[in-house]
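User: Could you go from structure to sequence for me? I need the amino acid at each position, not a summary. Structure tokens:
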């Protein structure tokens, strides 16, 4: 599915109804913060050809406290609204939780750390 088809699907749905799905593994630090483990290359042959044997073939992306909470709540079942509601219950003083969660989820999507369940279903049909 190309970028224009993906944008069209995303424009026709309420952002709070989107179901985020993780695309990468993660580790958790001693401070309970998430570190995303993102491969430098998605194809195995590219890893072998472009990365020296002594080098790490992954990037590490460190998330802050709020980002870590959002990441850990992404499970492929909950909508963005559900995640924002849960964060609001845990942290009642967190103002504008919907905007913050949507902004963060949009950033994760733009960086290709997540996708959306709605896009996966569409890809299966094509």
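Assistant: Here is the amino acid at each position, in order:
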């Amino acid at each position: 599915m190309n970028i224009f088809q993906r944008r069209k699907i995303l424009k026709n749905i309420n952002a709070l109804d989107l179901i985020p799905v993780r695309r990468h593994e993660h580790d958790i630090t001693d401070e309970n913060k998430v570190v995303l483990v993102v491969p430098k290359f998605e194809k195995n042959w590219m890893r072998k050809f472009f990365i020296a044997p002594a080098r790490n073939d992954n990037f590490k992306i460190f998330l802050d406290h709020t980002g870590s909470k959002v990441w850990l709540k992404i499970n492929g079942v909950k909508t963005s609204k559900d995640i924002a509601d849960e964060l609001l219950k845990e942290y009642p003083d967190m103002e504008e939780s919907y905007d913050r969660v949507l902004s963060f989820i949009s950033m994760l999507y733009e960086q290709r750390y997540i996708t959306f369940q709605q896009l996966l279903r569409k890809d299966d049909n094509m």
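One structural detail worth keeping in mind: The chain has six helices and five strands.
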